[in-house]
Amino acid sequence: MLVKNAFVVSSKAILKADVRVEKGTFVEISSGLAQKRGEHVVDAAGLFLLPGLIDSHVHFREPGEENKETFLSGGTAALAGGITTICDMPNNKPPITTVEALKAKEKAAKKCPADARFFFGASNDNFADCRAAARDPLVCGLKIYTASTTGNLLVTDQEKILRHLKNFPRTKPVVFHAEEESMVKVFTSIMQHDYAEKAHAGHHWRGRPTLAATTSIRRLLRLARQADNRSVHFTHVSTGAEAREVSHAKRHGARATCDTTPNYLFLSAADGAKIGNNAKLNPPLRSEKERSELWQVLQRGEIDCIATDHAPHPLAEKKKHYWDAPGGIPGVQTLLPLLLDAVGRHRLRLQDVVRMCCENPAQLYGLKGKGFVAKGMDADFVLVDMSGRKTVRNEDMKSKAKWTPYDGWKLKGRIAKVFRAGKAA
């Protein structure tokens, strides 16, 4: 296949070029490539060619909760949104904390139309399994939950966290959901006393304040230093304050990185009051002021990646009372459309999208062949029309959840076509 006249995007530049694909890999990127006999040609005039996006934080729920999502449904939604590689989290039911459970998950993921990788889950005593799982080429890191959220994975003991940091091979990062569990319990108790049955999703931040996240990040950075400065990653930071903790540590020699999600960039706690539990997630949405500050640190380059934390739940569960409704928002199909709209509104550049959604996650998680349009790399790519427009609709969502908090949003830019291993998705 030959893609002609595309604007090829990397974090460094946008260059007009032709791109040749053979046997699922990029073999030539140059201007003026001539069509070979029998070669299929895609005319990409006026379109931007991005590497396939990598979503380094999804919950596809299989095995255990296939009623909410499967690798087939989640992978189909991901491809529709320009995501060609996903990294699935371990808080399944039961959790992925043994090598046996990991193998069962890998078997289930063979149905995924996107390329699937996996995080292994840390428990209070599975140190041997963690070391064994790290040898699996499909495992991209270890996930440690320091606060209660969906599922029952939780490690709060500092000595056990430190042991995990020292035990897990340094070739792969340890990834944290960083909130201080003791603080979450105290503030949630206060919130229950103050609001009781009147509580709604717009109050969710009161039970999980920014202080719980920044305190946890500081503590975990200290533990990482004690573990001979091993690499750590903080996922779904929800405020500029959290990101600044990480970037400050990085400037002082820490091997620390972080990501955020579109939810914290495009929604705020006010949306929880308006659309209810469809805006409930952990960590919670923050104030408009904190949302603005998060954009500022993102634009300064202090956030390494953007992932979705795709967490689908049926609407029937989300419609329960606030205290009973699960936290989580589906997002794989709306990640790129939302970021293209930010580009169209001059809040980001396409080069920034590629840096945070392609190149950085590929390098951070050791995803060989991914994240770059270059000779020898996997031919996963997206063609984008920045002159186009898209309206987000619940009925178009491929996830089993069949809803999005962005329903009805009119966005600048559109995905024209997605290719996985050189074939149209």
Explain this structure to me?
- With 425 residues, this protein is an alpha/beta fold.
- It has a single domain (52-371), classed as Metal-dependent hydrolases (TIM Barrel, Alpha-Beta Barrel).
- Helix content is 33%, strand content 22%.
- The protein has 14 helices and 16 strands.
- The strands form two sheets. Strands 1, 2, 3, 4, 5, 14, 15 and 16 form an eight-stranded mixed sheet that branches. An eight-stranded parallel sheet has the order 6-7-8-9-10-11-12-13.
- A hairpin with a 2-residue loop joins strand 2 and strand 3 (25-30).
- The longest helix is centred in the middle third of the chain and has 17 residues, at 210-226.
Q: From the alpha-carbon coordinates, what is the Rg to the nearest angstrom?
A: 21 Å
* Structural class label: alpha/beta
In CATH terms, the superfamily is Metal-dependent hydrolases
Low-confidence stretches: none
**CATH fold label:** TIM Barrel
The first-level CATH class is given as Alpha Beta
Beta fraction = 15-25%
- Total tally of structural domains: 1
H/E element order: EEEEEEHEHEHEHEHHHEHEHHHEHHHEEE
Shape: globular
Rounded mean pLDDT score: 97
- What percent of the residues sit in helical stretches (DSSP H or I)? 25-40%
In total, the number of strands is 16
Give the CATH architecture.
Answer: Alpha-Beta Barrel
The number of helical runs is 14
Distance between the termini: 14 Å
